[in-house]
């Protein structure tokens, strides 16, 4: 498929790429999901021309790096339960928050980033596409005091200070979900419940699940 990566830019192709990558982990995406994700990608590419939201805009690369990768933790349905409230720490252009919000429509997602431009893009695009379970937040992470069931971090490096603030804002029995590359060692703490390994064309993704 890689050789033909840009010959068929469509929601159908996105659905196929995601299905091939994710189904072995029990993550099944619908055609409706693919349609909404495709529309979000179109908005991302359009706004990226003036807002510098991401360095990855190629359709095939985006399908894997932005969408498939973001959805790996969706294999853990017990973490993203109906009615949960999730904070996406350092969402950037909306990842992994937007794909996860589309996959879990009954979960509330707050997408946090220090860039006002990125949060403006997320808020406007979520409203335009009718993604009602997403709110963009342009604040400093350490000013957040609201309690969450889950905090997700794909781009922010977790150190002791960030970890301790996550502990403060995560509800009892809640989770911190952190993405790592295969070359990274997960942050070590007794709250580390387990790690999961996911393979895709871009290599291996490790996701660590901490429970407080």
Briefly say what this structure is.
This protein is α/β, with parallel strands linked by helices. The chain contains 6 helices and 7 strands, in the order H-H-H-E-H-E-H-E-E-H-E-E-E.
Overview of this structure, please?
This protein has 212 residues and is of the alpha/beta class. The chain has a single domain (2-211), classed as Rossmann fold, CATH 3.40.50.150. Helices cover 36% and strands 24% of the residues. It contains 6 helices and 7 strands. It has helices at 11-22, 31-51, 59-71, 97-103, 116-129, 160-169, and strands at residues 85-89, 108-112, 134-137, 148-153, 170-181, 192-200, 203-211. It has a 7-stranded mixed sheet. Helix 1 crosses helix 2 and helix 2 (31-51) runs antiparallel to helix 5 (116-129). It starts with 10 loop residues before the first helix and ends with a strand. The model is unreliable at 1-5 (pLDDT under 50).
Low-confidence stretches: 1-5
What fold name stands as the CATH topology? Rossmann fold
Going by helix content, strand content and strand pairing, the class is alpha/beta
Distance between the termini: 42 Å
Q: Which percent range describes the beta-strand content?
A: 15-25%
Shape estimate: globular
């Amino acid at each position: 498929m890689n050789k033909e990566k840009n010959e068929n830019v469509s929601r159908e192709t996105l659905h196929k790429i995601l299905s091939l990558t994710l189904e072995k982990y029990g993550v099944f995406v619908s055609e409706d999901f693919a349609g909404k994700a495709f529309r979000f990608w179109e908005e991302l590419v359009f706004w990226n021309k003036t807002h510098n939201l991401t360095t990855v805009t190629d359709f095939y690369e985006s399908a894997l790096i932005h969408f498939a990768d973001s959805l790996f933790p969706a294999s853990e349905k017990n973490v993203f339960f109906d009615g949960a409230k999730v904070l996406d720490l350092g969402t950037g252009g909306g990842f992994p928050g937007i794909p996860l919000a589309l996959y879990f429509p009954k979960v509330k997602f707050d997408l946090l980033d220090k860039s006002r431009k990125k949060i403006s893009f997320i808020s406007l695009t979520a409203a335009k596409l009718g993604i009602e379970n997403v709110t963009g937040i342009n604040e400093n992470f350490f000013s957040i005091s609201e309690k969450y069931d889950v905090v997700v971090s794909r781009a922010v490096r977790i150190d002791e200070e960030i970890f301790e603030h996550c502990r403060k804002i995560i509800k009892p029995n809640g989770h911190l979900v952190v993405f790592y590359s295969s070359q990274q060692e997960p942050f070590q703490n007794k709250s580390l419940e387990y790690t999961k390994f996911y393979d895709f064309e871009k290599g291996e993704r490790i996701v660590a699940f901490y429970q407080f």
